[in-house]
Design a protein that fits this description.
Protein name: Regulatory protein YycH domain-containing protein
Mean pLDDT: 87
Helix content: 10-25%
Pfam families: YycH
InterPro entries: YycH, YycH/YycI_2
Domain Regulatory protein YycH: 3-416
Radius of gyration: 27 Å
Number of helices: 9
Organism: Paenibacillus borealis
Number of domains: 3
Structural class: alpha+beta
Length: 425
């Protein structure tokens, strides 16, 4: 009997020791690194949902050419923009022929022929464009990046034409086979017949002949905490140490990676200079890697568009532009907001920057305001063009903080040929 009791007591002691060891190893603060590898990293405190790269690839504007030098513009999220894009995604383009951009009279095509022009801003790699359009490129075309697609009809020609513009500026690729009829293109063009008329200026940008309406928005906002970002970015947040900076920003590091937080601008910069290279680097692969990184380290707190994949000396910067409704959000000098930037070296993310602000869209207060058009707008643009010619004009929002609220003010964003951005409202 005594031996049985001793056996039970011994068994209980062993079980208690195992339970205590479990809590010591797995539950003490700072001990996670003992059992977590990078592959087993668990996401916490997400700033938003994950996103598919296909949902980040779309034109920043759609220009409808109606012949007789009549034009109008549709922007992302508007009814006709979405309708036309959804139809184009289902059509095939193949047998691409490489030609010089000077082989075409673009001023004549723009003014005389009906067509649809899709603008992709700084450009999108063809291998990514294939994810949202049915393209059958050859090896030469597949290595390009495209900043415009122009689909148009020519009078007395029985087939529709589709031309893809290389970001290099001197080369275009014309699809000898396009799964679009002349009637298809004309039907899409007809959607713009009763819309706001725009006038082309030097073939560079378009001025609306009427005022355009946007909503001015004020949204309750907050800021993600430093602790939340540490949990998102460090494999063992408990092992980080704080390094004060003279400019008021805060830096946290685990000796390999660093997180710098500027609380005045609600902005974070994460750096991982020791990240191991993944191998081959291309604009498309880096963009995919950047999307995957954001999915795993915060998510998407709103609507974004792939804005650029800019190559530097030893790195590539991938930028995502945030939108409110149909239009991009611009930062102010004292408030960085509306973009996510990542730097990649040899296919691996080495730097990650974004705003720490979040908003409560369901509590937004909106009012309709108007931006100038016609001669009033042209007169203001003439003042800007004295310094440098205007290259692009688009409605946008400027972000500002008013107490615990984020305010989005509608403006015209003016891009000059020297790369300068200006605003007017």
């Amino acid at each position: 009997m005594k031996e049985t009791i001793k056996s039970w007591i011994l068994a209980l002691l062993v079980c208690g020791s195992l339970v205590e060891s479990y809590y010591l190893i797995y539950r003490l603060p700072g001990s996670d690194s003992a059992v977590m590898s990078e592959k087993l990293y668990v996401k916490t405190d997400n700033m938003g949902p994950e996103e598919k790269v296909e949902n980040l690839l779309y034109p920043d504007k759609m220009i409808i050419h109606m012949g007789e030098d009549k034009h109008t513009l549709f922007y992302p999220g508007s009814t006709f923009y979405d309708l036309i894009m959804n139809r184009l995604k289902g059509r095939g383009f193949e047998s691409f022929q490489r030609r010089s951009v000077q082989d075409f009279d673009w001023d004549k095509i723009r003014s005389e022929n009906s067509g649809i022009e899709l603008s992709f801003g700084a450009g999108i790699p063809v291998t990514l464009l294939q994810r949202v359009m049915q393209l059958a490129p050859d090896s030469l075309f597949q290595g390009e990046s495209i900043d415009r697609i122009w689909i148009y009809n020519i009078k007395n020609d029985s087939k529709a034409h589709a031309v893809f513009f290389s970001t290099r500026g001197d080369i275009v690729y014309e699809a000898a086979k396009a799964d679009l009829t002349v009637q298809d293109v004309q039907q899409h063009v007809d959607f713009g017949m009763n819309w706001t008329p725009y006038t082309a200026v030097n073939g560079d940008y378009y001025v609306p002949e009427e005022k355009i309406s946007l909503v001015e928005v004020e949204i309750p906002s907050g800021m993600y905490t430093i602790e939340q970002m540490q949990n998102n970015l460090f494999f063992d947040a408990g092992s980080t140490r704080y390094i004060p900076e003279k400019d008021g920003s805060k830096i946290y590091t685990d000796s390999k990676r660093s997180l710098q937080v500027d609380q005045e601008q609600n902005w974070m910069s994460y750096s991982d200079p020791a990240a191991l290279p993944a191998g081959e680097s291309t604009p498309a692969k880096d963009a995919l890697e950047a999307v995957d990184f954001v999915n795993k380290h915060g998510g998407w707190n709103g609507t974004y568009r792939l804005a650029s994949t800019e190559e530097g000396n030893q790195e590539r910067t991938v930028s995502f532009q945030q939108y409110y409704g149909s239009y991009p959000i611009m930062s102010k000098p004292k408030l960085q907001y509306g973009v996510i930037n990542l730097e990649l070296q040899q296919g691996t993310v080495s730097s990650y920057e974004r705003s720490l602000m979040y908003t409560e869209e369901g509590k937004a207060v909106k009012q309709v305001v108007e931006l100038p058009g016609g001669d009033e707008l042209r007169a203001k643009l003439a003042q800007f063009s004295e310094a440098s010619p205007v290259k692009d004009l688009t409605p946008a929002y400027v972000a500002s903080v008013n107490g615990e609220k984020l305010k989005l003010l509608p403006v015209w964003r003016v891009t000059l040929r020297d790369g300068t951005f200006l605003t007017l409202n």
